[in-house]
Design a protein that fits this description.
Length: 403
């Protein structure tokens, strides 16, 4: 087993490079793939994660390596990594060297369905693999109205580029309830995160309660394993209402542990949601309501110093908060477009240290699964490797050698 783990850790180096530096390919290469039919297509319901926009070209939602690890697809024509097509097979390559063949995720059945009012379900809830639904109620953020967007975020730019083209807009509780029920029924989904751009506090809580009612009505489940992703409310007593509504977990993304970075790069969160101290206080209060390991936060990794990020993650973990660090991607349309994130090795080292903090704090794989909007991060992969949760551990080999 140790040999398999060693190879999988080498593959994580490959994945880190592919996720941070992106992957190059000719946009026409996927003409051989039945995207939107047999295979799952990318849908821009919240962010553009590719390093440049590609209106008019469909891309896959990601790809799997032979070991079973999932790679989010981030297009960057400058990357030394590429996807090539040869004799009916797609491969991941490093320059001229083929690393391994890749496979693309099948399209969920609910992606081909519509709600009772005719809305396409794939515009309402993204399938993030491994039974995870990413439900987006709004693809715009109210901070934009006052020029207070988070500087690293491109939600409004993505909406302007793809919203009308892909038919994505504000969603209604009955649409979400019908879509979640279909995904649970047709595709075996088992967790959802409800998220979107910032909306005023009172409107947010009332909307989330209506959504929870609709999900329970359409699924017949009192416990639908949902995460409510919210801004820090001025009135912390509101937190109780999310749990009473049926959400099992809750998430409030602080973005930066350094107070000055938070103030400078998250002006809306600083000016309209109580400031950095209030966001920390909110997370601590959420643990009191939901319990240890049932609260999530996130830090944008690669802008503030690594030690500062780790200090914040360690502190929050000691309070019962599962705080991830999502690699900073200088997204198209964000105020920081054109900047550079740290090298892949920097991020991979960070992920390993975060996983160690989580282990020290007693967080299980179920904890980090239930709180996250996606379970295909490298931190999740480290857990899968250490706990031998991948199918490859019952097979003979892991097909990765080159980095």
């Amino acid at each position: 087993m140790s040999n398999i783990k060693e190879k999988l850790y080498r593959e994580l180096e490959v994945k880190a490079i592919a996720c941070i530096d992106g992957v190059s390919f000719d946009p026409h290469i996927f003409q051989h793939l039945d995207l939107g039919g047999r295979y799952q297509e990318e849908v821009h319901s919240l962010f553009e994660l590719d390093h440049e926009s590609h209106v008019g070209f469909k891309f896959p939602a990601g790809f799997y390596s032979p070991s079973g690890l999932f790679y989010p697809l981030k297009w960057d024509r400058r990357s030394r990594y590429s996807i090539i097509f040869d004799q009916d097979t797609y491969y991941l390559a490093n320059g001229q060297e083929v690393i391994f063949p890749i496979k693309f995720p099948g399209r969920p059945k609910y992606y081909g369905l519509k709600t009772s009012d005719g809305t396409k379900m794939n515009t309402l809830a993204l399938y993030n693999q491994d039974g995870k639904l990413h439900v987006v109620y709004s693809n715009s953020c109210a901070f934009n109205e006052k020029g207070h967007d988070c500087k690293f975020c491109n939600i409004n730019a993505t909406n302007n580029t793809y919203g009308e083209v892909e038919g994505i807009g504000w969603t209604y509780p009955h649409q979400i309830g019908e879509t979640v029920a279909a995904a649970f029924r047709e595709d075996g989904a088992r967790h959802l995160s409800l998220t979107g751009g910032y909306v005023p506090e009172r409107r947010e809580v009332d909307y989330y309660l209506d959504v929870a009612d609709s999900i329970r009505e359409h699924t017949g489940l009192d416990n639908f394993n949902g995460t409510a992703v919210i801004g820090a409310p001025n009135d912390l007593d509101i937190i109780e209402r999310y749990k009473e509504a049926g959400f099992r977990t809750i998430a409030t993304n602080i973005e930066f542990w350094d107070k000055n970075f938070f103030k400078a790069l998250c002006p809306g969160k600083y000016l309209e949601s109580g400031g950095w101290e209030h966001w920390v206080k909110t997370l601590e209060h959420e643990v009191q309501v939901f319990g240890k390991g049932k609260v999530r936060s996130n830090i944008v990794a690669g802008i503030e110093p690594k030690d500062t990020t780790l200090e914040g993650i360690d502190y929050l973990a000691s309070k019962g908060v599962v705080c991830f660090a999502t690699s900073w991607n200088p997204n198209p349309g964000s105020a920081l477009e054109g900047h550079r994130t740290p090298e892949p090795a920097w991020h991979l080292d960070l992920y390993k240290k975060i996983a160690a903090i989580f282990r020290k704090s007693g967080f299980t794989f179920d904890d980090i699964y239930d709180t996250a909007s996606s379970s295909v991060s490298i931190i999740h992969d480290i857990y899968r490797i250490e706990d031998e949760l991948l199918p490859v551990f019952s097979e003979q080999d892991v097909a990765v050698e080159a980095v």
